[in-house]
Amino acid sequence: GVKIASLLKETGLVTLDPGFMNTASTESAITYIDGDEGILRYRGYPIDQLAKNSSFLETAYLLIYGELPDEETLDAVTRRIKRHTILHEDFKEFFTAFPRNGHPMAVLQAGISALATYYQHTLDPKDPHQLETATVLLMAKVPTMIAYIAKRATGLPLLYPDASKSYVEDFLRMTFALPYQEDVDPALVKALDMLLILHADHEQNCSTSTVRMVGSSHANIYASIAAGVGALSGPLHGGANEAVLDMLGKIQAEGGGVDDFMRRVKDKEDGVRLMGFGHRVYKHYDPRAAIVKEAAHEVLGKLGKSDELLEIAMGLEEIALNDDYFVERKLYPNVDFYTGLIYKAMGFPTQMFTPLFALGRLPGWIAQYREMITDPATKIGRPRQVYIGETERQYTDISER
Ligand code: ACO
Q: What reactions does this protein catalyze (predicted)?
């Protein structure tokens, strides 16, 4: 890679690779994907082993520090994070500045970038101590922030974090509970913990590349991760989980027939796509989607919710897996085809789905930012272009145009 780069520099040639289909932007030791085989590993550990046995905080530690923690270390890190979960009181005012029905991703992006104004002693990414503190603050405060955004949208009272509860349980409690009713179903805690693990990293995807790109200018980690939240909000990326539910809801409202919808997808009518299908890297069943599909049945079953939308989703998948259009293009369900159904069963409004993805991806963004900022090979991200505009021409006075 370095040789090609210096050759291109010497010759003045540039590569043109729209969407970076075949351009590696970095070396990385965090996440491995084999898209043809449907393999995903964090720091070498297969995703299904982590989903089954790990916890979100343990996986976050693994991604950020490179190894699974021993009990004592995990305990110490958890306690350190829990000490910082309370948001500055002024933040409550901050949230009131936005309309209640504003999209939570927009508020979250603003909130994360605003952390830089409260924690000015943690902004220098070249100071390992500051970077470490910022890592803990982000892991601690983002769940509280997301819970507050959800609560404010409904007008319900905000609850303070409770350090005696687990990370995920406390997030669910702050999001849903009222002051007098605090029990959270342990089955939901377990399911959400697992979904957060599945979303925790996915190498150089759009939002992670954004985090690295912004950080390559030595912008602080809050600014960089806030930019990642913006990238994640798009319907072709993290916003897909919300778009899937909207799509399923529309199909249901139109009578539940999947055939006509699939015809429109295949005819590319009005650019309609089967949301939650397809992936830039996976040309095989997304290993995360298989785990989520199983969880969807389990969670909906446990909650006693038979969901017609799940039936519609399975119908769409069945058609797609046997249809030439999808088979030829190697389009399979991605992680977000079934997540929305679980989030919905848990009681999250559709607009909160992508913030949940952001919470899951947070340790991945942090790990990637830290790897980027400490890698001596990192240079400021600055792609070249192939100019196709006008050649030189002369300015004319406005009266002559
Ligand atoms: N439905 C219908 N057709 C599709 C879909 C889809 N979901 N995805 C791709 N295609 C078709 C394209 O129309 C194209 O067809 P063509 O060869 O006839 O032109 C072909 O498959 C290749 O698609 P591209 O858009 O070139 O593939 P790319 O790698 O650029 O896009 C992406 C990947 C953005 C994920 C795409 O598959 C998509 O839009 N999917 C739906 C949105 C989605 O679920 N996003 C979530 C991604 S995963 C994540 O962020 C967690």
A: oxaloacetate + acetyl-CoA + H2O = citrate + CoA + H(+)
Q: Is the CB of 295 under 6 A from ligand 1?
A: no
Name every residue whose Cβ is closer than 8 Å to that of residue 174 and which is 6 or more positions away in sequence. Answer: 143, 144, 147, 148, 151, 158, 159, 161
Burial class (CB in 10 A: 0-12, 13-18, 19+), 132: middle
Protein residue with its CA nearest to atom 17 in ligand 1:
329
Residue whose structure tokens are 């898209």: 35
Q: Ligand 1: which of 242, 316, 334, 339 to mutate, most ligand atoms within 8 Å of CB?
A: 334
**For 317-320, which contacts have Cβ atoms below 8 Å and span 24 or more sequence positions?**
319/258, 319/259, 319/262, 320/262, 320/274, 320/277
Determine whether 202 is an active site residue. Answer: no
Q: 239: closest CA among 275, 270, 271?
A: 275
Q: What is the rounded distance in angstroms from the CA atom of residue 388 to the CA atom of residue 326?
A: 35
Q: Catalytic annotation on 297?
A: no
Determine which residue's CA is closest to atom 27 belonging to ligand 1: 280
**Residue type at position 390:** E
Identify the active-site residue in 260, 336, 375, 397.
336
Cβ of 316 less than 6 Å from ligand 1: no
Q: What are phi and psi of 193, to 5 degrees?
A: -55, -45
Indicate if ligand 1 lies below 6 Å from the C-beta of 276.
yes
Q: Please write the tens of the pLDDT for every residue from 70-83.
A: 999 999 999 999 99
Helix H or strand E segment including 31: strand 31-34
User: Rounded to the nearest 5°, which phi and psi values hold at 219?
Assistant: -65, 150
End-to-end CA distance of the chain: 49
Query: pLDDT tens digits, residue range 214-265?
Result: 999 999 999 999 999 999 999 999 988 889 999 999 999 988 688 889 999 9
